[in-house]
Amino acid sequence: MAEAQPMLVGHDDVHLVSDSQPGVLPAPISAVISTRIKPGQEEAYLEWGRRIAEAQAKSPGFQGYRREPPVPGVQEDWLTILRFDSEANLQTWLDSPERKKLFDESEAFTDECHTRIVRTGFDQWFEVPGAAPPPAWKQNMVVLLVLYPLVFLLNEWLQKPILVGIFGLPYWAFLFVNNAVSVVMLSLILPRVSRQLGWWLSPAERDVKRDFAGALLVACFYTLWLLAFWLYQTRMGAP
After folding, report:
1. Theoretical Cys-Cys bridge with 83: which of 63, 117, 127, 236, CB 3.0 to 4.6 Å?
2. Share of the chain above pLDDT 90, in %
3. Furthest CA-CA distance within the chain
């Protein structure tokens, strides 16, 4: 999938997308395709675009697409965003003979075309060997599972006794230190947690019952954290 690697450098990597339709990149994995059309070939491109849209809609895991026209004086390219439920399904479409045939046809009316992969922001923390990145909602649940106790404990053991109690740091300073430490700790802890929850985050096949069971398990851990920290503060006499 060589064409899907970052190929543009500089201003050509920046594209404008109107916000008339919410959720431009709601899927776990998306492909952003920028296409520069030869002068006077817009109709040919749009007709070709209808054909490739019909073909990609039949591809497994396809979740939708949108196409944005150029912005005069700002952006010369047509921009297409494809959304898939997993990287494996996206790659299957990008590597498919049908897509290759259609893209060969487009050379007659395009000057250049570049494809880049866009993932959700937490993917580096959820690398399960041999599996596609999990859905964004599962990632968000696991981030909250780890982040909540981490922030609470940093507040109790770092911020109050050390940053404020010993060094007397002002709010803006200890908040920055707390956030920086939280990010570092998340980078260390989340990959380990995601591996333990791999059966739920990235199963070989989607199973609604498995999805529900995993979400319920994480929700139970939320409850345990809340109960544990409530008891802690009650015993410490904190408000």
Report:
1. 63
2. 60
3. 75
State how far Cα 28 lies from the chain centre. Answer: 5
Torsion of CA 9, 10, 15, 16, to 10 degrees: 170
CA dihedral 30, 31, 36, 42 (to 10 degrees): -60
- Give the tens place of pLDDT for each residue, 15-33: 444 434 444 444 568 899 9
3-class DSSP state for residue 85?
Answer: coil
150-159 pLDDT per residue, tens: 999 999 999 9
pLDDT digits (tens, 9 = 90+) for 192-236: 999 899 999 988 787 899 999 999 999 999 999 999 999 999 988
Cα separation, 11 vs 34, in Å, equals 13
pTM (predicted TM-score): 0.58
The position carrying tokens 């776990």 is 28
- SS3 at position 3: helix
- Virtual torsion, Cα 67, 105, 14, 26, nearest 10 deg: 40
The structure tokens listed for 143 are 């981030």
Whether the Cβ atoms of residue 82 and residue 49 lie closer than 8 Å to each other: no
C-alpha 221: how far from its chain's center?
Answer: 24
Domains annotated on the chain, with CATH: 2-119 (3.30.70.100), 136-236 (no CATH)
What is the edge-to-edge ordering of all strands in the sheet holding 29-37?
62-68, 78-84, 29-37, 110-119
